[in-house]
Design goal:
mainly beta, flat, 5-stranded antiparallel β-sheet, 186 residues, SH3 type barrels, OB fold (Dihydrolipoamide Acetyltransferase, E2P), single chain
């Protein structure tokens, strides 16, 4: 058992009998009341969000998970086939562990997978990826002053919004958490 001060963002705990991932946790001391810890969590199995408050001396069931780096090889139905670069074992990882960020997965990309025993429970791709624009309307030369966006299709078919000056064939960096254009890559 652990205390709330031992919990940090990204920790896995058992809350109401379910395995949850801590998204955010903060220590609060409101006025003349007792201090407490407030956390926002996401259920690993269902994806539902939850919030909780604990006193400083309450016990929390901290779950130890193994985090491994796996290299994405290809997609097989509703699973991603990934390879462990140390043992060269191929593992099938369910697509739903990645949420919306699955749209930015590319072959040979290294990702972090959390395991509870031998069961994969959480998947995370890098926060920024570089991809090539496959199609977008022609760019307007010199139009860099406004923040107007236009739709663009990436090399894997995913659609995002990009600035007007981005053209077909440009390599761009994308924030996978917000699905937002960051910059052009040279």
């Amino acid at each position: 058992m652990a205390k709330p001060k031992d919990i940090s963002r990204g920790s896995f705990i058992r809350f109401n009998g379910e395995l949850v991932n801590v998204i955010e946790i903060e220590h609060r001391t409101p006025g003349n009341l007792r201090a407490f810890y407030q956390a926002k969590m996401k259920n690993v199995r269902s994806g539902k969000s939850a919030e909780a408050r604990w006193g400083a001396d309450e016990d929390i069931d901290l779950v130890r998970v193994e985090v491994r780096e796996l290299q994405y090889l290809y997609r097989d139905g509703e699973s991603l086939v990934c390879m462990d670069n140390e043992t060269f074992d191929q593992l099938y990882i369910p697509v739903e562990l990645f949420g919306d960020s699955i749209d930015f997965v590319k072959e040979e990309q290294v990702m972090l997978i959390s395991f509870d025993g031998s069961t994969p429970i959480f998947g995370e791709i890098p926060s920024h990826v570089e991809m090539v624009i496959d199609y977008t309307e022609p760019g307007i030369k010199g139009d860099t002053a406004t923040k107007t966006l236009k739709p663009a299709t990436l090399e894997n078919g995913t659609q995002i919004s990009v600035p007007l000056f981005v053209d077909i064939g440009d390599k761009i960096r994308i924030d996978t958490r917000t699905r937002a254009y960051v910059e052009r890559v040279k």
